[in-house]
Amino acid sequence: MPVKLRTYWKRYLLGAVALLVVLAVGGPLFYARVIEGDAAAPLAVGAGQTAATGELSGTYTVSAGSESGYRVHEILGGQSIDAVGRTRDVSGSATLSGSQVTAGEITVQLATVTSDQARRDNQFTGNIMNVAEYPTATFRLTQPVDLGAGFTGGDRATADATGELTVRGVTRPVTFPVTAVRNGTGIDVSGSVPVAFADFGVTPPSIGDFVKVDPTGQIEFLLKLAPAS
């Protein structure tokens, strides 16, 4: 083989090796920072609600603007990512007696939960949640939640909610903090429920050491409660 040709092939091979190294190291970084981008901020009640009006006691229903979903930490090729999926297909109701929430139940339609990646959504609705068999996740309040006397006058309240969370046909007791504020005649409520996937028969997906999903995550929600007509 002529010297020039041997030199060309050496350069070609070195270039190919260098490209593979760049793809192995830089590919996940490019995906995490450019394709995946920044994760959506946690769901939370806003700061610009309308002044509270009307009687507080009564029954409220989940209305337009409500949202729920998941947040879970992933490792992709050594890059740290927060995966977030959301849906506005949320329904339910809550009953208040004064500033005390005496009953409540929320249902989320899991088939409509989407993230910014179709491959993740296919995993979520298929192998992970099996929405064909278990189309919904529900939470039912089992203990009253006292939002405090100041909530009646419009103060923002934070309290613990205790109830039963049902996912994939498995029901577990949960306790988590919620934040609530009156918004005109309605009430805005947000919170985050910590979840260990194994408790609900869910195995986090993984591909060797390249893709790993944490064994725990969060169920986030923002509820817009309107007085029942």
UniProtKB/TrEMBL annotation:
InterPro entries: Lipid/polyisoprenoid-bd_YceI, TTHA0802/YceI-like_sf. Residues 59-226 form the Lipid/polyisoprenoid-binding YceI-like domain. It holds the Pfam family YceI. Belongs to the UPF0312 family. This is Lipid/polyisoprenoid-binding YceI-like domain-containing protein.
